[in-house]
Amino acid sequence: MDLLKLPFAALIITCSLHAQRPLSYDLSLRIDPSQPTFSGRVKVEIDFAAPARSILLHSVDLTISKARADGAAATFRSAPDEQLEIQFANVLPAGVHLVEIEYSAPLSDTAKLGPNRRRSAAGDWYAFTTFTPIEARRAFPCFDEPRFKTPFTFTIELPQSMTAATNTPAISESAPKAGWKSIRFARSQSIPTEVVAFTVGPWQAAIGAPAGSKGVPTRILYPAKATDGPEAALQAAPELVARLEAYTGLPYPWDKLDQVALLDNAYGAVENPGLITYKGQLLLAKPDGVARMRGTMAHELAHQWFGNLVTQATWQDVFLSEGFATLIGNKIAEMDLPVAERGRRAAEQRNTMLERDAKAASRPVRVPKMLRGDMKDVYGPEVYQKAASILKMVEGWIGEDTMQRGLQLYLKRHAGANANAADLGSALKEVSGQDVPAVLDSFLNRSGVPKVALDLNCNGTQPVVEVSVADGWTAPVCVRSPSGRSCRLVRGHDSLALNDASCPAWLIPNAGGTGYYRSTLNHGPNGPSPSSPMESIALLGDLK
Question: Is the C-alpha dihedral spanning 499, 505, 511, 515 positive or negative?
Fold first, then answer.
C-alpha cells in the first residue's frame, strides 16, 4: 500500500474465531453503482475443529435476510465486537460444513473504506472496494483477519453496459435478464480478506503488454472521458514486474495485472492482487508525475510477493508487508536512476525516522493490535520507513546478495501462507550465518535512537575500532577505511578489527549510511568525502 495513510479506527477479533477456519468463499453479488445498496449471497466452506452449535463471523452494517448451514435453515443475531452469530438447528460435528448467508450492504458515496461508489464529472457511477485493513466485513460476512488466507470465487450481476473486475480473470458471462449480465470469475489463490477486491462501472480498458515470465495480461482501467491517459502506466507495469521477478526469484504470483484509476481512494494506492487500485491522478500521470507513479507502482507490485504471496500472520507484523514494499519498492524504482544517485530516498527516510524516534511519542515497529482503538496507527510510518531502514541496515551488514538469497528463501518457504518476524529472522540467519534474529528483536520491538560511539585504536599490531553501543541495543556496526568495509555485531562494548596494514588515514563510522543509529567518531582521522548519497546523508544526519 502507498505511504499515504489516513488515521482511522479498526478492530481485530481473535478470541471468538479460533475454533473454526474458512476453507473457501463463493460470493454472488448484484451491483448497480447508481444505487446506494447492493445485495449478496456468500457461501463459506468452514472447517470446524470441534462440534459447535453456532459460529461467529465479522459483519458491519450488513442487513442479513437468511442463513443456512449444510442446507438447513439457521437463525442469526448481531454479536458484540462487530460479529454476526449464526445459530444452527442442531449441533454440527467437527469437520467441514457449508454456511450460506444472504444479505444487503450499503454502497456509500462518502465513506473511504469498505464498498463505496463515486460519481464522475460526466455523471457516471463507479463502485469499488477498499478493505484493508479490516473492512471486508462491510461487504460480506467473513473471517476478517490476515491469518485466514482463503480462496475466493466471485459471480457479479451488473448492468449490461458496465464492466466488472475482481482479483481474478473472468471465465464466463451470461444474461439472466434484460439489461443485466452475470460474470463468473476464476477461483483465486488463498488471499487474506484485506486485499479481496471488486469494482463495477463504465470503465475504459487500455491493454498493455504481457508481463513477467508467465506473460500475464495487463490492463489499466480508467473512467470514461478521463482527461489524462494511461500510456506511462502501461509501459511501467511489465518493466517493473520483470525487475521484481529477477529480485525475488519467483514469477509474478497472480493470473492477471489490472490497475485501476479510481475517482477517489482512501490511500494513494492499495495492493489488491490482480486488481491494484490507485488515486486516479496518480496512476494517469502527467509527464511531471511519471517518476512518482513509477515509484508508487513499484511499491504496490513489491506487495504482490511481500504481503500478498506471503502475508503477515497478525497485524503486529504488518512491517513484513509495508516495510518490505518500501525497501524493495525503492530498490526497484531506483533502477531508473544512475547508480551514483541511488540510495537517496532510503537515507532520507532513515534520518526522518531517527528524528521521529528521538521523541517520547515514538512507538516500536511491532505492536500488538487487538482493539479498534489500537489500530489507528496500524499503518504508521514505523511500519514503512522505520522498518525499511532496519531491513536496509541488515542488508548493509550481511550484504546485498546474501539478503536477496535470504528473502528468496523466506518467500519460497512461506509462499501462499502466513509468516511472522521469527520466520524472517530464521531465513536470514540460515543464509548469512549471522544472528539476524537478535538484531530484529532489538530494533523492531522497542523505540528510541541507538547511539554508537567509535574510537580508532592504532596502539597494537593491528588497527581496531573500539565500539560502544549504549542502552542495551544489539547493533550491527559497519565502518569503512582504506582497506574496505569491516562489520561486527556489538552488544555493549566490543572491538572491530580493521584490515588495514597500518593506522588508516581516514575512517567512515557508518559505512554505506545503512546503520539505523546515530554514530560518533570520538578519536580518529577525518574521513574522505562519502562515497554515496546514502553515506553522505546519513553522516549529515549524525552530525546534527
Answer: positive
